């Protein structure tokens, strides 16, 4: 009988082929940055335990950057044994080609003030660092008593602007990834694995 992972792989590959892409999964690739459906969730819960120890006894306010970080947030959140509150912010980054320019527009602002709170920004992936650098400075100007960043994925080879990310799930090479909340044109967020998209010309970067 095929495993759940196999049936997800088959479904996703078909959906991707309709779009002219092939989704490349963990199974059999041997590539360290392809996570299995449980690896990202397990890493999120490990990071939750570490964050829980660091903030022990202090209320923690999480800021989730929509939409890509939503699945990571939900796994992280359930691993936090703390007095936790959550808020959401949505941004759109202006891109030149596949690079963001660092110009960021807030499309949904926070509902709650940050003043005097311990705040942790929850991000899906750090690429050039331009978006997070802008957001970090913006949120720092709102007077939190501390401000830090947790990101599931990091592509350090792409960095233009340094960003101090306190907690990193996985470092990955330079490839465009989808799944576990990450999209390509709003699709593929539902894939349980972190995957790369492959065209006939090769892996999308
Ligand atoms: P940065 O400003 O660091 O270049 O861009 C960060 C944002 O770009 C991330 O929050 C994410 O929305 C998007 N991004 C960067 N790399 C990837 C990737 O490999 N896959 C997807 N789906 N989004 C990415």
Structure in words:
The chain is an alpha/beta fold and 205 residues long. Helix content is 25%, strand content 32%. It has four helices and ten strands, in the order H-E-H-E-H-E-E-E-H-E-E-E-E-E. The protein has helices at residues 4-18, 37-54, 70-77, 130-140, and strands at residues 22-24, 60-66, 84-96, 99-108, 118-126, 146-154, 167-171, 177-178, 195-199, 202-203. A six-stranded mixed sheet has the order 4-3-2-5-6-7, sandwiched between helices. The radius of gyration is 17 Å and the shape is globular.
What attributes characterize this protein structure?
alpha/beta, 4-stranded antiparallel beta sheet, 10 strands, disordered N terminus, binds guanosine-5'-monophosphate
Short recap of the structure:
By secondary structure, the protein is α/β, with parallel strands linked by helices. It has 4 helices and 10 strands; from the N terminus they run αβαβαβββαβββββ.
Give the helices and strands, then pairings:
Layout: H1 4-18, E1 22-24, H2 37-54, E2 60-66, H3 70-77, E3 84-96, E4 99-108, E5 118-126, H4 130-140, E6 146-154, E7 167-171, E8 177-178, E9 195-199, E10 202-203
Parallel strand pairs: 2-3, 2-5, 5-6, 6-7
Antiparallel strand pairs: 1-9, 3-4, 8-9, 9-10
Helix pairs in contact: 2-3
What is the total tally of β strands?
Answer: 10
- Per DSSP, what share of the residues sits in E-state strands of 2 or more residues? 25-35%
Global structural class: alpha/beta
How do the SSEs run, as a string of H and E?
Answer: HEHEHEEEHEEEEE
Q: What is the overall silhouette?
A: globular
Radius of gyration equals 17 Å
- Measured between the Cα atoms of the first and last residue, the distance is 35 Å
Count the helices. How many? Answer: 4
């Amino acid at each position: 009988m095929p495993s759940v992972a196999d049936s997800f792989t088959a479904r996703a590959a078909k959906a991707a082929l309709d779009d002219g892409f092939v989704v490349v999964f963990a199974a059999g690739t041997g590539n360290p940055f392809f996570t299995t459906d449980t690896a990202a969730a397990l890493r999120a819960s490990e990071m939750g335990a570490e964050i829980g120890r660091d903030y022990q006894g202090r209320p923690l306010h999480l800021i989730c950057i929509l939409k890509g970080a939503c699945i990571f947030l939900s796994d992280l959140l359930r691993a936090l044994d703390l007095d936790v509150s959550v808020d959401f912010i949505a941004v759109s980054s202006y891109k030149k080609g596949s690079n963001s320019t660092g110009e960021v527009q807030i499309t949904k602002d926070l509902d709650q003030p940050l003043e005097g709170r311990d705040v942790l920004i929850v991000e899906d992936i750090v690429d050039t660092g331009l978006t997070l650098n802008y957001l970090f400075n913006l949120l720092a100007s709102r007077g939190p008593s501390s401000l830090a960043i947790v990101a599931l994925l990091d592509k350090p080879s792409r960095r233009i602007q340094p960003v101090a990310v306190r907690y990193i799930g996985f470092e990955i090479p330079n490839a465009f990834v989808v799944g576990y909340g990450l999209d390509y044109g709003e699709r593929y967020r539902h894939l349980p694995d972190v995957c790369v998209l492959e065209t006939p010309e090769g892996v999308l970067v």
